[in-house]
Amino acid sequence: MDIFNKATSRLGPLGQYASQVHGYFTFPKLQGEISNRMIFRGKEKLVWSLNNYLGLANHPEVRKVDAEAAEKYGMALPMGARMMSGQTDLHEQLERELAAYVGKESAYLLNFGYQGMLSIIDALLDRNDVVVYDSEAHACIIDGLRMHMGKRFVYPHNDMENMRKQLERATNISEQTGGGILVITEGVFGMSGDLGKLDEIVAMKKDFNFRLLVDDAHGFGTMGVTGAGAAEHLGVQDGVDVFFGTFAKAVASIGAFVAGPKEVITYLMYNMRSQIYAKSLPMPLVVGAIKRLELMRNKPELREKLWTITNALQNGLKARGFNIGNTQSPVTPVVLSGDTSEGANLTHDLRENFNIFCSVVAYPVIPKGMIILRLIPTAVHTLEDVAYTLDAFSKVKDKLDQGAYATGKIVKVL
Ligand SMILES: Cc1ncc(COP(=O)(O)O)c(C=O)c1O
């Protein structure tokens, strides 16, 4: 058997639709400046699918600093891994600023959030340690856990009673192995927008001995008074032992970081394979991140605007009877009933006839019969964008209810 056979015989749960949807629902090309309006297939669309929460992607001060840094340093500097030849004062400065931002002793820069998380998990755990984690944890956490040779216990999403049971089981095992317990969850869950129950989890430290690792990819910059994330919002930042954030969302760049006690960060610096065996983050990304943090700290109006748009969008959807789940963050899922083809046809109608570009999630990613349109409000949206979108959503929902999209096949998009 040729290992390449799978490339033609089973493309995977999403890949099976590739010939029908590639370039439209999957791998769409959004062109022009990153903003509330962008060009898709030659036409301007109102875009609700970018995690550019604070509008930093195209902020003029950010663009200027990015360009100047690229001019001054180029994209290669520094060469080599941090440990070998890729260390600079600016990398260290950014780490100090990140640590201060999230109220931790130290921070370590990561080239990418996804690989970084794999390596954090890999470095923190040995075969005697036990993990307790949320069932809806991001793929980077699940994939990191694939490397874990010890026991792991999953609890249903945010089910604290069940989590307590898993902690009891984990405690029994760790007493036998002599290992420790790591709890892993998210601050803001990126699909549903609900928050990890970090306050309740931190409170369980009274009854159990564990460390808490929080992936706050969507919460960093958006949640809490200073934007330090979901734990700040819930008043338990100090209870988070290891904080993980990425630059891929509110910071609007590439890169990520992990923050925590000094000795733990030093341990990670010397043990995280994703960093030891990878080139250091290029200077323009480091200098650009320093600028972005400055704006995040000094321009609270960006976060206020994000929340004005978020509240208008979410309250408007609720007032019109839409089910937006339990979101407590800017992430706004609109949950509808319908099959995969109805989801695709409705999204196509929104995109072509209402000029609204948003992401759609349907079976097999979520259960059959469910369609989720996911909207990401940002500081560059306007209240007019919200009003227009609410009207458009009411119209497509009526059509969905009348069966207008139930053609049994996905509209021809290409
Ligand atoms: C919850 C969560 N964790 C981690 C990541 C990975 O971050 P990065 O894009 O920096 O690899 C993402 C997505 O970007 C995410 O949504």
> Which percent range fits the helix content?
25-40%
Strand order of the largest sheet: 4-10-9-8-7-5-6
Strand segment count: 14
> How many domains, as an integer?
2
Given this structure, which CATH class of the largest domain is correct? Alpha Beta
- Label the CATH architecture of the largest domain: 3-Layer(aba) Sandwich
Mean pLDDT: 96
Parts with pLDDT < 50 across at least 5 consecutive residues: none
What ligand species are in this complex?
A: pyridoxal-5'-phosphate
CATH superfamily of the largest domain: Type I PLP-dependent aspartate aminotransferase-like (Major domain)
What's the overall geometry? globular
Structural class: alpha/beta
The tally of helices reads: 15
Q: Quote the distance from N terminus to C terminus.
A: 34 Å
The CATH topology of the largest domain is given as Aspartate Aminotransferase, domain 2
- Bin the strand percentage: 15-25%
Give the quaternary arrangement of the chains. single chain
Radius of gyration: 22 Å
The description of the largest β-sheet is: 7 strands, mixed
The helix/strand order is: HHEEEHHEHEHEHEHEHEEHHHHEHEEEH
